[in-house]
Write a structure and sequence with these properties.
The protein has 239 residues and is mainly alpha-helical. The protein contains ten helices and two strands.
């Protein structure tokens, strides 16, 4: 090996990665905002000193990720927050991480403990009334054995968690929690595949809701802990 071997060229990002990272940085610094129209393909290529093909490829990737919305004949826009991406790379990364049950339980415990703490601190009476109503809807469905089905129960369960996240009053935490619950959805479905689990889930929710209504943090954290432990047992039984 000669001294020249130490002078390996640094691996540089591709032009497509450069375009994507430029858009990302502009979003982080809020120079670009949801709803903003991007310059034309030609203008972007000239400004960034890359080919139009690189711009086109970057926009396809950003569109798949739900970052931009390409409106044929109108232009390319930064997507609004309500627009859901068809492909979520972070979700796939979580799935492929092959996390085991203890790691998944720790993730939920970390999030939900902080979420109920924030809800107790910040939620309005209206937020709490909405949370209780969503819980009651799940409860009624669960105990109405002639009308309930696993899919409806799963949707009501996820709505409960979305409402809990919304009650934090923090849009970032709400979105992260919704994302994590999307990751947990297959395990929620397994829970409701067994009718006997429904009433137990309702009871666990009831304890969480009552503790939050009382603004009792210790009781709420205890209820979350019991819910996580129950989920861990069910997960292990089904694996």
């Amino acid at each position: 090996m000669t001294k020249l071997d130490f002078f390996q060229p640094e691996k540089r990002e591709s032009t497509v990665e450069y375009v994507i990272n430029t858009i990302k940085d502009l979003l982080i610094t809020r120079k670009l905002k949801p709803g903003d129209m991007l310059p034309s393909e030609t203008a972007l290529a000239e400004y960034l000193n890359v080919s139009r093909g690189s711009i086109r490829e970057a926009m396809k990737i950003l569109s798949a990720f739900g970052v931009v919305e390409i409106r044929r004949g109108h232009g390319t826009y930064i997507a609004e927050p309500s627009n859901k991406s068809n492909i979520d790379p972070f979700l796939f990364n979580l799935i492929l991480s092959r996390a085991d049950a203890p790691e998944m339980a720790e993730l939920r415990e970390l999030l939900e403990s902080q979420i109920v703490t924030l809800v107790i601190k910040k939620a309005t009476d209206e937020d709490l009334a909405k949370l209780e109503q969503v819980h009651n809807n799940l409860k009624q469905l669960c105990f109405n054995e002639t009308k309930n089905n696993a899919q409806d129960l799963v949707e009501h369960e996820l709505k409960f968690h979305r409402t809990l996240g919304q009650a934090t009053g923090n849009v970032l935490i709400e979105k992260i929690y919704n994302f994590v619950m999307e990751f947990f959805k297959p395990y929620v479905e397994k829970t409701y595949n067994y009718p006997e689990n429904c009433k137990n889930a309702v009871e666990l929710h009831e304890n969480i809701v009552m503790a939050i209504k009382q603004r009792d943090r210790e009781k709420a954290l205890d209820a979350i802990q019991k819910s996580i432990e129950e989920w861990r047992l069910l997960f292990n039984e089904n694996h």
